[in-house]
Amino acid sequence: MVTLPTFLPVVEAARKYGLDETRLRALIEKGKIRAGVVAGEMVVSEDEVRDQAVTRKEDLPEYKKHAHLKGKPIWISEAERKYGVPNPTVSVWVKRGLIKVLGYEKNRKLIDEADVAYCAEIYNQRRGQGKWLFDDNGLPYKPKTGPLVTA
User: Fold this and answer.
1) Do 10 and 43 form a contact (C-beta atoms < 8 A)?
2) Looking at residue 42, what is its pLDDT?
3) What digits encode the pLDDT tens for the residues 13-36?
4) Hey, what CATH class is 59-125 in?
5) 81-101: b or e for each residue (b if 16 or more CB lie within 10 Å)?
6) Cβ-based neighbours of 43, under 8 Å, separated by 6 or more
7) How far apart, in Å, are the Cα atoms of 68 and each of 21, 109, 110?
8) Rounded to whole angstroms, how far apart are CA atoms 54 and 62?
9) CB of 138 within 8 A of CB of 126?
10) Domain ranges, ordered by start, for the chain
11) Which residues of the chain have pLDDT under 50?
């Protein structure tokens, strides 16, 4: 099933994503965001506005719901049990810098539970081995889409 994009009026998109309307219109003119006219009103792709507005994982709703865990230490084995993510996967996220290391306790590496909870949520949404989950900024990876092929 193909999911159709959502389009918002420019004013509403700017408000929803905390962008200056002038900046949003400039992004449209540069071709960074697709726009169209519906019933005489300019509308923009919500996904493209969000991509331009959100440049940090901390700004995502998926991260914000775990913000109360920020700075709370958890070790990798505990994170594996609590969030259902394999130990090697959590370790890779730590090495990539997606999960902050808070310190060490004896032989245990203490990591930020908010980062773990966020990464685990994305992992559980997109289950599947061998899939890229995060870009270099820690945002959910969006594969490049080619032309729609129908049979």
Assistant:
1) yes
2) 93
3) 988 888 888 888 888 888 888 899
4) mainly alpha
5) eebebeeebbbebbeeebbee
6) 7, 8, 9, 10, 35, 36, 37
7) 31, 21, 17
8) 12
9) no
10) 7-53, 59-125
11) 146-151
